[in-house]
Design a protein that fits this description.
This protein is an all-beta fold. The chain has 1 helix and 32 strands.
Length: 521
């Protein structure tokens, strides 16, 4: 129902998600304890938008829906039904995209102390989920009905949908999961060792309530059981009371998510899906000195993210929706991270941190999609992303903060932040030209200063703190986010070549202030 007859809300998101937990904690002996949680999580909600053929207003910089024109066209579009009734047949409407789900599961962890040096842990994780997806008619925008013939179980007058009737798609996904792990930690003198291993198995099931199978029932797709595993381990050694070194690594084979196994648009299995792989290693050092006035931490990390899978919606030539499935993406993330804290006197402290990374795509990949829902025919495309930098996050970040504490309860701090090697966001699906190997547009490096004050009032009745912040103290003009070769807000009249005029950018906020008070009772 509308807020008023003259008011239309095109976009709305709504969701309700209750959660119920039943916890059981038991100490079975001095060495053995067991913690178990059984839970239920429900949920109903969705989002709204347009569906069908809308009237558009192109007089602005980007097109927007012309609702007056859409309603007028719906009112004038008359259909005579097989029973002789004349209805205003809406061509464009507002729809709800609904997501209803429930999950039940049990998590159980057991801890066993073998001796003072060795501790063991075990765990089991079982869960079952069912998710219902569909669209329905939210607003007919002046019409009496909307024509939809995509349900194989309907015919004739049933194609004319009224408010609340389901359209476009209606399917139910089922996920069944079982996993377990074992973990050990050994500590002796200055040495600590730990290791963990786990295995999980998952199975997916899809029912399409609009598609008819050869036996006349609703079409169903069932995946095989898919297994995944992980192994992680590490060690730390205290060389002296002030110096500690550590190393750890891991290998994770992660099962693909539902959409990478079953295509619920074409109601078919995705071909050649594989587990995603994460191979990681890290080595670091922690040191403190100058009578504990200075602490320094540093580490080197390396992560190979292999067989990454992703997907993106598309519109087929016949107007139906499809999904590109892209697998085999390989990324390398490596770098160095440093931080320190130095407090030579009570009233002054200096903190610093830096992260210097190199993140890139390793290889070109190929992807496919179902071009015809009825035949299941797939088309394959190549995407050329080898050696491109990973976008949408600065790969170099540094920060320095100086704090003073002139009197009890009062503190002031100035913070300097620097961001560099910031490649704009892009999608691998946009790299279909084998001759285009240029890096995406790189956001110019920028520096920002912030100022912070806080005073804890000496009040007996509560913990009262007043505070003030000045963000972007020097009113720096900078780009905080960008999309490469944007088709919406980039300037493409002179071609697109990953330059500044092709990017859609979001400027950083100018100087702004925040004042407040917090009261803790």
């Amino acid at each position: 129902r509308r807020f008023s007859q003259t008011y239309i809300n095109e976009r709305e998101n709504y969701y309700h998600k209750p959660i119920v937990n039943l916890n059981w904690y038991s100490q079975l002996s001095d060495k053995f304890s067991l913690y178990t949680t059984a839970y239920y999580s429900g949920g109903t909600g969705g989002g709204t938008g347009t569906f069908g053929s809308m009237g558009w207003n192109y007089s602005l910089k980007q097109r927007v829906v012309d609702y007056d024109a859409t309603i007028a066209r719906n009112v004038a579009n008359l259909d005579t039904l097989s029973n002789g009734q004349v209805v205003k047949s809406s061509r464009g409407i507002l729809r709800n995209s609904v997501n209803n789900q429930w999950t039940v599961g049990v998590l159980s962890k057991a801890f066993y102390k073998v001796n003072n040096d060795l501790k063991l842990a075990f765990g089991l994780d079982w869960r079952k989920a069912e998710v219902e997806h569909y669209r329905d008619v939210r607003d007919l925008l002046g019409g009496d009905a909307f024509y939809f013939d995509g349900n194989d179980f309907e015919s004739g007058l049933q194609y004319y949908k009224k408010l609340g009737d389901k359209i476009d798609y209606f399917n139910t996904n089922e996920i069944n999961w079982l996993g377990g792990y074992v973990q050990a930690e050994y500590t002796k003198d200055r040495l600590t060792l730990y290791g963990t291993g786990g295995y999980s198995v998952i199975k997916y099931f899809l029912t399409d309530h609009f598609a008819k199978a050869s036996n006349g029932a609703e079409k169903e797709i069932e995946s095989d059981y898919i297994g995944g595993y992980q192994a992680k381990g590490g060690a730390s050694f205290r060389l002296s009371p002030d110096l500690n070194v550590y190393v750890n690594g891991g290998y994770v084979s992660k099962v693909p998510i539902f959409d990478q196994v079953i295509d619920d648009i074409s109601v078919s299995k995705v071909e050649n899906y594989t587990n995603e792989l994460f191979i990681s290693g890290e080595a670091g050092v922690n040191w403190k000195g100058l009578d504990n006035k200075l602490t320094v931490n540093g580490n080197f990390y390396y992560t190979l993210w292999d067989n990454r899978a992703t997907s993106r919606g598309t519109v087929n030539p016949d107007g139906s929706e499809g999904v590109y499935y892209l697998s085999g993406i390989s990324q390398t993330h490596m770098g160095v991270e440093l931080d320190f804290a130095y407090q030579p006197v009570r009233f002054f402290r200096l903190d610093g941190a830096g992260s210097f990374g190199s993140w890139k795509y390793n290889d070109d990949v190929s992807g496919s999609y179902v071009a015809d829902k009825n035949t299941g025919d797939r088309k394959t495309y190549n995407f050329y992303i080898a050696d491109l930098k990973v976008g949408d996050a600065p790969q170099v970040q540094t920060a320095l903060a100086a704090s003073i504490f002139p009197t009890k309860g009062l503190q002031a701090q100035v913070v300097w932040r620097m961001y560099a090697e910031y490649y704009s966001n892009f999608s691998p699906f946009d790299r279909t030209d084998a001759g285009d190997r240029a890096q995406v547009w790189k956001v110019p490096s920028y520096n920002v200063f912030d100022l912070h004050f806080a005073y804890n009032l000496p009040a007996d009745f509560a913990d009262v703190t007043v505070f003030a912040h000045v963000f972007n103290l020097l009113d720096e003009i900078y780009v905080q986010d960008a999309t490469d070769n944007s088709s919406f807000n980039g300037y493409s009249a002179n071609g697109t070549n990953h330059s500044a005029d092709d990017a859609e950018i979001y400027p950083g906020l100018p100087r702004n202030f925040n004042l407040g008070v917090s009261i803790g009772l």
